[in-house]
Inverse folding.
């Protein structure tokens, strides 16, 4: 008779034979309890994307404007700053800046002007800094990216 048969005859069980059904039961219980509650947990509210690096979302009052090729250059006074992009120069309220507007940005199509750059008008706009080169040294350091209607 072997050792195993002698243990079986005495009515004794090995420790592994007791724990394996218990361990199997616990694993199944854990797996099933994890699958039982698939309710979606609400996350934080979605934030609008941050402005691109080098851009500022602001409100400003239009000052003097002049036409240049396909651009209109304006002096503007900052009245509120909503958001800064990464690495953008801070701009206190009351700062006077020069901004360049592309022709296409000011109108929905070639015939209809949707944004008025008359002196004294208040605009909300997004501007980006322009790195000057030798040929653009005289141009404004800021360019309008978007002007919501």
């Amino acid at each position: 008779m072997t050792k195993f048969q002698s243990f079986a005859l005495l009515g004794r069980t090995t420790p592994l034979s007791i724990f394996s059904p218990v361990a199997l039961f616990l694993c199944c219980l854990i797996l099933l309890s994890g699958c039982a509650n698939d309710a979606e947990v609400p996350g934080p509210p979605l934030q609008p994307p941050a402005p691109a690096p080098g851009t500022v979302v602001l409100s400003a009052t239009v000052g003097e404007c002049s036409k240049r090729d396909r651009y209109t250059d304006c002096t503007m006074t900052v009245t509120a700053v909503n958001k800064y992009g990464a690495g953008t120069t801070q701009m206190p309220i009351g700062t006077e800046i020069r901004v360049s507007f592309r022709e296409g940005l000011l109108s929905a199509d070639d015939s209809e002007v949707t944004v008025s750059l008359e002196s004294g008008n208040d605009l909300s706009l997004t501007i980006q800094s322009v790195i000057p080169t030798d040929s653009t040294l005289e141009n404004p350091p800021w360019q309008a990216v978007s002007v919501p209607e």
The longest strand covers residues 55-68. Residues 132 and 138 are 8 Å apart (CA to CA). Residues 55-146 form a domain with the OB fold (Dihydrolipoamide Acetyltransferase, E2P) fold (CATH 2.40.50.120). The helical segments are 3-10, 15-36, 103-106.
